[in-house]
Amino acid sequence: MLDSSDIDEFIARLKAPRKIIVFGTHAEDDNFEQLWKKLEQRLDKGDMILRWGREESGNDLNYQFYAESIVASLSNQAQAKELHILEMVKLERCRISSMTSEVPDAFFVGGSRHAYNQFKPVIEIFATVGHVGNTAASAHYALMIQRAIEFSVTQAYAEGCNLLKDSAFFGCSDIGRLLNNWNNEKSRLSGYLTEISSKIMYKRDKVSGTGFVIEKILDIVDCQPSDAWVRTEATRLEVPSPTLNAALDARYLSTMKEERMEASKILKAPELVDTPSVLKEQICDDLQIAIYCSSVCAYAEGLSLLQAASEAEEWGVNIETCIELWNLPGSFLESAVLKMIDSSLSSSIEDNKNLLAVADVAAELDTLHMSWRRAVTLSFACGTPIPCLSAALTYYDSCRHHTSSVGIVRAQRDFFGGYGYDRLDKEGWFTTLWTREHTELKKRELEAEQRANGDIKRKRKRKIQSVESKSDIAQI
Question: What was the pLDDT predicted at 432?
Answer without folding.
Answer: 95
